[in-house]
Model the fold of this input.
Amino acid sequence: MVDFDIGERFTATDKLGNKFAYELMGIDPNGGDRAIILYNLDQRGETRVEPEWLNQRKIKRIPADDRSKMSVKYYDIDETAARRAKEANSYNTYPPLRATIDYRASVDKAAEIAEQQKARVDPMYHERIDKLLDTYARKLAENMNKSNEIDARVPSVMIAGPANFPNAKKEKQNAARARNLEDWRHIQGLLDKIQSTGRGGISADDPAAIDKLKAQLKSLEDGHLTRKAVNAYYRKYNTLDGCPHLSEENIRKLQASMSNPSWGRQTQPFPAWALSNNNANMKRIRDRIAELERRAEKPPAGWAFDGGEVVVNTDENRLQVLFDEKPDDAMRQELKRSGFRWAPSQGAWQRQLTDNALYAAKRINFLQPAEKVPEKSIKETLAYYSQQIAKNPASPSAPSKPSHGERG
Done:
């Protein structure tokens, strides 16, 4: 039998030439003949085999640094915590590696979504899709490990029995479960981000947003110049035939459009309103580029307010509001009206970091910066107290606060 360590990867080729890559997950002592647990890296799924299975195939180890057989990185699942969680809530035996296999199945499903999205969009978006997939895999592992840790804190009443059951601890456990479930929902939202990447506008979350916006602006500018040149050619020759700025196919399409009754009384192939709209779009993109470049060079500063602080989180590209205590319902409603949403994974109310977000935050009354005592006032007060102490060194108590007249 081939000697492998847990976690090693290898390829196995059968007599028909079918070749797959596997990872040795572990050995199930209660698995009978099929005690060896493998993970098929090509078909993305668990398989159990008998020892003889390995001897019936041509086996070749995959070097530890070769990740070509895996399109996604798997993060570690705490199997000990998973087993304890199972034992605290069920009489059934915990199947070896069950949590890890379930985790990998979820990540594999996300990887399929990512591969499908890559096939639909420009390759320039592939790196962002890969990063989102890796973030999903990492955060899902953290969430599952946290879930198992929470489930193991207090056993089920079915296991522990009703006598002297720790109800208070159970309530805390259930609250922790609810928070972790919110985190899980947020993590699942990453799948929507993967599916929307490259299909809509350019998000400021994209690290390459400035470059993409500049490319988009260049395309609009080139098209705008072409339309103006076509209009000038038409005004000069009263025809599009032979126009050097258009291909023959585009000339035919534009002529067909101009012959349509809906073209109306337009005096040029590209009407003034279309050029005006294009100018507006170019200005909007220039403004976005300027905003992103300004923020990259000098990120805006956050501020403290009475009861918390506003944080400019450039890593997450979010403006975040952190409270010392849970805000009341009226405050939460005001945050929502201003575009902020609660992010359990961040422990903050947040929205995308933009000039509009900063403007919205500064308009909210309870987020106004905390007032600071003027430095001059502090120095004057300290000087006054120093003078009083010098005059009355034996006085055990501090003098009363000076009036405005006493301050001179």
Notes: The chain has a mean pLDDT of 82. The longest strand covers residues 19-27. DSSP finds twelve helices and ten strands in the chain.
